[in-house]
Specification:
The protein is an alpha/beta fold. It has 6 helices and 14 strands.
Length: 283
């Protein structure tokens, strides 16, 4: 298959790695990288919050090993398009022998050097978009690398002339403070917006990271339940959720508990979905 050819779930593109920067401190056992890729094919129209399916070299006779990654930022040029992926180097435990092995796609990407080429399909899914109304509230909830698309989204929100009048709230969870992407001692990108009167970021760190205890993301939302519920009820609020699929049920349950009763939550949740104001990227 050649670049530009259609696959079952989208078009196949080639991207060249422009830059790969580690964004977790060297003292953290977690390696997460911001990776900027460039494609010369101007038909690629990815947007923040959408996904690309990276085709890593396959194993055990398989041609490819496919993995979804959300787009954290896009820079459209006249001759090319650059997009950023946030990639965490992963490992997995084999169910049969109990041994730990390096994740195929994540290690393939993290080991790449500038100039290397990848194949990918996309864009997939719905993008996180900035509302036209500057007074709209925006509620963002992410876990781990799920924070990546919100970095680009917040930048876009406050780049717009005249500032932003609506409340912009970001809830982000991680196992340790070192893994608070864009919020640790070496990467304080979100600190650029702390002086914006409408922006607040809430960090939720696991109280027992060594035991892989669940991240206290739900508690952080619950601690701000009154404001979260008032935002959810507004007719112009956007809700954006990104992160591992396993987190979704817990987050939605916590959001439901901010309501006075189940019927209220059902009505609000239905309105958010029906009007396209509830969007999620899960992987």
């Amino acid at each position: 298959m050649v670049p530009g050819q259609e696959m079952e779930d989208g078009r196949l593109y080639t991207g060249t790695l422009v830059r790969s920067d580690r964004i977790t401190p060297n003292s953290s056992k977690e390696e997460v990288r911001n990776m900027v890729f460039r494609t010369q094919d101007l038909s690629f129209d990815g947007r923040t919050g959408q996904c690309v399916r990276v085709l890593a070299p396959g194993q055990f006779g398989n041609r490819h090993h496919a993995r979804l990654y959300s787009i954290s930022e896009v820079d459209d040029g006249q001759e090319h398009t650059e997009f950023t992926l946030c990639v965490r180097r992963c490992s997995y435990v084999d169910d049969f022998n109990g041994q730990e092995y390096p994740g195929i796609a994540s290690n393939y990407l993290c080991d790449l050097r500038p100039g290397a080429a990848i194949q990918f399909v996309g864009p997939l899914g719905y993008p996180f978009t900035v509302p036209d109304d500057r007074n709209a509230d925006i509620l963002m909830i992410g876990m781990g690398t799920g924070i990546a698309p919100f970095r680009g989204l917040v930048r876009e929100i406050y780049r717009r002339g005249g500032g932003w009048g609506g409340r912009v709230r970001l809830f982000h969870g991680a196992r340790t403070g070192l893994e608070m992407l864009y919020m640790n001692d070496e990467n304080q990108d979100f600190a650029l917006y702390y002086d914006q009167p409408t922006f607040k970021a809430f960090q939720a760190v696991s109280p027992r990271p060594a035991l892989d205890a669940p991240v206290a993301l739900e508690r952080s939302i619950a601690d701000n339940a009154a404001e979260v519920w008032s935002m959810l009820q507004k007719p112009d609020t956007r809700v954006y959720i990104a992160g591992p699929e396993a987190m979704f049920a817990r987050v939605e349950k916590t959001l439901a508990e901010t309501a006075d009763d189940a019927d209220q939550w059902t009505a609000v949740r239905h309105a958010l979905a029906a009007e396209g104001r509830w969007q999620s990227v899960l992987y």
